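[User]
Um, tokens okay?
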Amino acid sequence: MLAGTIIAAAGATPALASETNACLITKTDTNPFFVKMKEGATAKAEELGMTLKSYAGRIDGDHDAQVAAIETCIADGAKGILITASDTKAIVDSVRQARDAGILVIALDTPLEPIDAADATFATDNFKAGELIGQWAAASLGDEAANARIAMLDLAVSQPSVGVLRDQGFMTGFGIDVKDPNRWGDEDDPRIVGHDVTAGNEEGGRTAMENLLTKDPTINVVYTINEPAAAGAYEALKAMGRENDVLIVSVDGGCPGVKNVAEGVIGATSQQYPLLMASLGIEAIKAYADAGKKPEPTPGKAFFDTGVALVTDKPAEGVPSIDTKEGLDKCWG
């Protein structure tokens, strides 16, 4: 059973047999990032006269729900599937079945492993997003970056590609040797206090932060996989009276997260653009259904890059950024 799943046609009228049927499969239907993604896909599907069915897991990491959703999309005769995979390795077999059935599969935000397991990927350059916040944190600390005590609040123990890319990007930007770039947790830099996982939500961020503070109460830099996790980390720090002397950095660029940057909860965040990812994905499915045309990646990259910008009100020399006013103009959620 696909628990927590939403199924909704994009239009208010019954679908005609000639309409293009597409599916959107996200990790959850509660994270504002995926809410905005669904809005973008729904609006574009309505504009193009397509039928869209949307599915989501109960929580980030609900792999079984995504497998069931793909099976449903195949049975429904979908022309294309847009997916943000919870488990980027385990989902490959199901994606292969869809592609063998003639369905265009596009990964949104989170590349599959390997990336060419999908027909295309529309995503933020997640490594770049992590690198920007790492560079900002190091530049903000200045000489004290050499003595940093860093907590890494990651996504899941399965280490999906989006989590690995952001984590390793942050470390690279901060000046840490990442060892194997395809996984986190093997680095030996003494500045890393440890890693914990958050499931990408506020409760998980709070618990992970509490765990790492127990290990080392002198933590002064916190990397977070996303802004809900960052909000939870802040609450844990606040409970210890440490909220004003710790740098928190994140990735998302949702309106609540950008407001948290403006209020000093988060020092800097890398903003991504989920509505654009989803709307471009729907356009690609329509082009494939009409003419058999598959999307092309950004030149020099293995995916189509939908852009990223660092948002902070405390710019650091040498690190390009926009302020929270501009970030609020471009935010989502």
Observations:
- The longest strand covers residues 21-26.
